[in-house]
Amino acid sequence: MRDTAYAAWDQAAQIIEDRAPRVHPFDDPQPRYTSPVPDDGSTIPGNLDTAFATAVLASLAHPGREHKRRALLAIRWLLATSPSATAPAMVMSRVVV
Fold this sequence. Notes:
This protein is mostly helical. It has helices spanning 2-19, 48-58, 65-81, 83-93. The protein has a domain at 48-93. The chain has four helices and no strands. Residues 22-43 are annotated as: Disordered.
């Protein structure tokens, strides 16, 4: 699965470079990203579920009513299906729903 994700990113990065060429030395990131090849199988730091829950909570900040409605529906679903990932995100972002 991880190899597929890296392959997809490599293809997307090539398309982005073709469509948005670098025009100045400041366009190059410092330091340039290189994917870990080969993957050593070490544990990825952090918790991806909590990161996604935090992103959903952050969507409440959007000013649009429809965006807020979707965010509240997503938060309700997260609380029902994954409270163990949602609770730390709510504590971190200090959201009260």
